[in-house]
Amino acid sequence: MPIVLAANVEHSNVLLALVLMLVAAKVLAEVFERLRQPAVVGEILAGVLLGPSVLAWVQPSDFISLTAEIGVIFLLFNVGLETKPQAILAVGKRAFIVAVLGVIVPFAAGYLIAVLWGGSKIEAMFIGAALVATSVGITARVLSSLGLLDAPTARIILGAAVIDDILGLLILSVVSSFSKGEVNYWSLAGTAGLAIFFTLFVALFGTRLVSRLAPKIENLHISKPFFNAGLILCLGLSFAANYIGVAAIIGAFLAGMALSEATEDNHKMHKMTSGITEFFVPFFLVNIGMQLNLSIFKDVSVIFFAIIITTAAVLTKFIGCGLGALGLGWRRSAQVGIGMVPRGEVGIVVAQIGLGLAVVSEAFFAAVLFMAIATTLIAPPFIKILFAGEEAAREKTDADDAGGIIHETDDWSRIG
Amino acid sequence: MPIVLAANVEHSNVLLALVLMLVAAKVLAEVFERLRQPAVVGEILAGVLLGPSVLAWVQPSDFISLTAEIGVIFLLFNVGLETKPQAILAVGKRAFIVAVLGVIVPFAAGYLIAVLWGGSKIEAMFIGAALVATSVGITARVLSSLGLLDAPTARIILGAAVIDDILGLLILSVVSSFSKGEVNYWSLAGTAGLAIFFTLFVALFGTRLVSRLAPKIENLHISKPFFNAGLILCLGLSFAANYIGVAAIIGAFLAGMALSEATEDNHKMHKMTSGITEFFVPFFLVNIGMQLNLSIFKDVSVIFFAIIITTAAVLTKFIGCGLGALGLGWRRSAQVGIGMVPRGEVGIVVAQIGLGLAVVSEAFFAAVLFMAIATTLIAPPFIKILFAGEEAAREKTDADDAGGIIHETDDWSRIG
A45-48 — which CB contacts under 8 Å span 24+ positions? Predict the structure, then answer.
């Protein structure tokens, strides 16, 4: 009946998809909250439900994947706003060890399993590489909802995730080169150098540059100048990071950190960006779930392989990263280990590249896809349990603060 | 050099486009603010600059047009949050007269000019229809940045824009039917009935439904339940409006109005959505400018026709709507008239439909495109000048408030 609808059919479809995703995400988040489980798990399952696996009401599309990307960019930007560079640099050495062990152990395990399962060496390397990169968005979301982003282990996780992403980029570069039969070491060194330079430069000098520019920005005539400058920095560094080859969210996180010390403006900006984040993050989570296509598991052997690779993915990060943080005691080492478990979209991208280069088979790709989504579902409940102590301490501190007594949570900042 | 870039080239390109649009918008907004001109004009010109007409750095795309649509949806949602239904209903009769005169006069003028210029009757009807629909986003943005959304003439403009959009839908339906040689009056009546029912239902009962549901929403376990419910309502009604055939922004505006009385939650929500709006609106404005393609003006006669149709577009809305508001005195009638001038994306959509039906020629389409963008550039400076008195009064009131004395700006609410 609506005669003029034609011109806006596409907009209409997209609006419907967004509404469905938002409603499904919030309904399942509510269910999971009531079951005292993390809301993120519900929101990812909402994607499984809406996506091709079950109802097929919403199809994955470029628009949705871009919306999801903007969601995780703002999520990490907000996390960055709450993270002072010193806090990360202070745990730098520990984060580095965690990242390195969290790269070596999963890569070796993935490689071995794939070879034993009959994969080629190149294929096995891709499976190993897909197990490497932690998707810190999920962990950040869970810790943020618990109000625990400034817990010392949270900082180690964030720092390790940044280093992990650079190492993952290098491994993927090497593996991609191998698969093309040509390894250009100069090009690899260039990629590595650029990624490290970019990260260190923003982490070390970003804050200083921002505090020098802040008064000039505040003098601009446009409305909300600092907020707008922050948005530009966030998207600009996300683009730069993506262009260099590391994840866009690393750029967003660094942008947030660079702004984290401009405290007064930061506070206002944080409120405004939190609205953007709240709006967008559900699309990031739902989109992860929507990637799952259960129909690829026609073959029973694929199911077995998927379960094995998922188990390996969970255990190797947990043990590898946990080992790196063992000096902090068992519980904190377990917190770091479990926080590094989610692979999410990063693992999928690696496997997609292998699929695109025709060196990874459909069956192995299906298994990696399953692993990437399963790790995002498995980790959050354990993160919640393992951080329960910190949460209680945090609530106590808050309650004490409200009563006028301020406790310095000094024991946190001494660790690193 | 970045070997793994391939997988994210599209994301990379989109991020770059977003950064360029944001930077260009804010730089030109700053320039225009310093020239004491409305920032929106700078932001639209930023689009002209980046788009195919000048630099061609950013190409119009589905993603950008959807981002722009979300921008104007949140803009009108925010305007709705600041608009109580009674305030609009109180000026309903006046708004209706303004809307009707603002539809008849431009339609008649557009039709006559096109016929005199040698267009067919059907083509002339489309030109007339393209002159009908006010794009209230531009005016709302300017008034909002002046803090004048609750000026009485602002309410008349908002109410008239809603009615105007419904009338525009009907005219477009009739004209489209004519062009296909078949007018189904039942279908037309159905479209009209549905649009009117939807608008009146939400305007009259939305607030009551929301206030009944609000306590239940607040009891949900998810974080920020009221904000999330508001987002769902906003996108849901935008979709519904679009589906019925009226503009999505009408649905967003009605959603905002329905939530406008849940004052306490509204206040929190308003802060969070204002971040989303601030982020997205520049893309809406830049996207308008990007539609312009100056290369279509190869023919001098097209330039002449474009100038004539633009002049007619400005004068007929200004006079037609101004006449409808004449009872309020000259200055306020001029405020209403100029506020209804911008056509923006609505006029473009109408002309595109005509082009798609092969009844509107390329030359006429080019002229309408020019008119749609030119009216969004011409109106804002005059809006600023004509509302200068209200702005001064508002600033005085604010200053007095700050001094502890509260003046009821009662004279405003008595008008309607």
Answer: A45/A289, A45/A377, A46/A21, A46/A285, A46/A286, A46/A289, A47/A21, A47/A285, A47/A286, A47/A287, A47/A288, A47/A289, A47/A290, A47/A291, A47/A292, A48/A289, A48/A290, A48/A292, A48/A373
pLDDT of residue B298 exceeding 80: no
Residues 47-76 of A with CB under 8 A from B: 62-63, 65-66, 69
Tell whether B26 lies on the interface with A, counting CB pairs under 8 A: yes
* Residues in B touching A145 (Cβ below 8 Å): 223
* Residue pair A322/A373 in contact by the 8 Å Cβ criterion: no
Q: Assess whether pLDDT exceeds 80 at residue A162.
A: yes
State the DSSP code for A178.
H
Q: How far is CA B42 from CA A199, B142, B385, in A?
A: 34, 12, 17
Residue A416 predicted with pLDDT over 70: no
In angstroms, how far is the first alpha carbon of chain B from the final one? 65
Asked if the model's pLDDT at residue A5 lies above 90, the reply is no
**Is 0.90 surpassed by the pTM of this model?**
no
Measure B327 CA to nearest chain A CA, in Å. Answer: 35
CB-CB contact of A301 with A281 (8 Å): no
Q: What is the pLDDT of residues B175-219, one digit of tens each?
A: 888 877 777 788 888 888 888 899 889 988 988 898 888 888 888
How sure is the predictor about B408, in pLDDT bands with cuts at 50, 70 and 90? Answer: very low
Report A:220-279 residues touching B (Cβ under 8 A): 220-224, 227-228, 231-232, 235-236, 238-239, 242-245, 248, 271-276, 278-279
Are residues A88 and A95 in contact, defined by beta-carbon separation less than 8 angstroms?
A: yes
Supply the ipTM of this predicted assembly.
Answer: 0.85
- Burial B317-356, CB ≥16 within 10 A → b, else e: bbbbbbbbbbebeeebbbbbbbbbbbbbbbbbbbbbbbbe
